[in-house]
């Protein structure tokens, strides 16, 4: 059974720092992996989607990498800003007969001004 | 940019009452999903829907839950007799095709059962 783990559960850094959020998954047979942002009490905003054949995707200050064989993905945030404060969720599309997202518990990020 | 819309944004109901949550997926999308997130917990898959029938469902999606696409645009989740533990944020999502890529999510419907 696929399990997705995100480390750390929480992270607090000063504004301007570059940071890395980690996501690991137990079954490498995935279609793709998606990173989301969630503000408190709000919806899920898709940040980046990496197909299983890709190694990375970039959007602005965000860069996501995927190493399917080792079951890992990282989300790199450059030059962090207070507005980046949110919970970041990683989710994988399962392979096989189940086409659904399996979610990590998220990393709660606080950027201090 | 096309988006998934959900109503209501927040509903408060008494235990035992029926609740219907509504979603309008992106118009040319083919697969629809309901997920839920209990406060402080992981997002959980409830059900997927394709070609006017349930494609997959989780253990959470018991006989109290049902989904429907009544008119070709709306996609509804009905909870027949709500329990306290049904209190959660419910997210609708849609995707264009089975291997096309990302899910697009609505803003969610917060359900509070008293």
Output the keywords:
heterodimer; A: mainly beta; 6-stranded mixed beta sheet; 5-stranded antiparallel beta sheet; B: 114 residues; mainly beta; 7-stranded mixed beta sheet; 4-stranded antiparallel beta sheet; globular
Description:
The complex is a heterodimer of chains A (113) and B (114). Chain A has 113 residues and is mainly beta. Chain A contains no helices and 11 strands. Chain A is globular. The termini of chain A are far apart. With 114 residues, chain B is mostly beta strands. Chain B has strands at residues 5-7, 10-13, 19-24, 31-37, 43-50, 53-57, 65-68, 75-79, 88-95, 104-105, 109-113. In chain B, the strands form 2 sheets. In chain B, strands 2, 4, 5, 6, 9, 10 and 11 form a 7-stranded mixed sheet that branches. Chain B has a 4-stranded antiparallel sheet with strand order 1-3-8-7, with no helix packed on it. The mean pLDDT of chain B is 91. The chains are: A mainly beta (113), B mainly beta (114).
Rounded to an integer in angstroms, the radius of gyration calculated over CA atoms of chain B is 13 Å
Distance between the termini of chain B: 37 Å
Bulk shape of chain A: globular
Overall structural class of chain B, as computed from helix and strand content, comes to: mainly beta
Q: Helical region count of chain A? A: 0
- Secondary structure tally: strands of chain A: 11
Give start-end ranges of low-pLDDT stretches of chain B.
none
The number of strands of chain B is 11
State the end-to-end distance of chain A: 41 Å
Helical content of chain A stands at: under 10%
- Individual helix count of chain B: 0
The profile of the biggest β sheet of chain B is: 7 strands, mixed
